[in-house]
Design goal:
Strand order of the largest sheet: 3-2-6-9-10-5-4
Bound molecules: flavin mononucleotide
CATH topology: Pnp Oxidase, Chain A
Shape: globular
Largest sheet: 7 strands, antiparallel
Order of helices and strands: HEEEEEHEHEEEEEEH
Radius of gyration: 16 Å
Number of strands: 12
Helix content: 10-25%
Number of helices: 4
Amino acid sequence: MRLTASDFRRAMGCFATGVTVITIDQEGEIHGMTANAFTAVSLDPVLVLVCVDHRARTHAHLHARKRFGVNVLRSDQQKISEYYARSDEKHQHPESAGARFDRTAQGTPVLQGALAYLECRLHSTQAAGDHTIFIAEVEEVVVRDGEPLLYFRSQYRDIADVRG
Ligand SMILES: Cc1cc2nc3c(=O)[nH]c(=O)nc-3n(C[C@H](O)[C@H](O)[C@H](O)COP(=O)(O)O)c2cc1C
């Protein structure tokens, strides 16, 4: 059996996830990237990871800034996910997708209305194929009420769809 990229994508697409936007302060500008390769790693210390494609602008920004935010999207934030998944977009009009930001004390952009926010300081990196695994220590969190945006088989869903 020879595994193709499309087989791999189809299999991984069965693993339903939430959707995040990784935010970085890029010399005063807000940089965002949609990511679902995000997971908890350790409780002591509190570590998370995100896997980022070498070709993404975010890859260089994370290495340079060594600090980022993870914003867990709410069910009504699909447009924001689509906006920050566009590689051709300079992200100069986030309000066109309904995205507005505050800043943490460390200057990291925080997406208003997201279900959760995690302030992350880079701990270590691991090159892995065409991606890098960025492992980070979580310094603070914000959690809000609401329902999550889900991603399953290359489509956005919300919990109402799943409940049928
Ligand atoms: C639902 C969804 C999840 C994604 N997850 C990731 C991810 O975990 N890692 C990644 O490198 N790209 C991921 N992408 C693709 C990036 O969002 C996309 O390549 C983006 O344009 C990169 O932006 P940048 O070049 O500004 O960093 C995802 C896209 C979508 C739609």
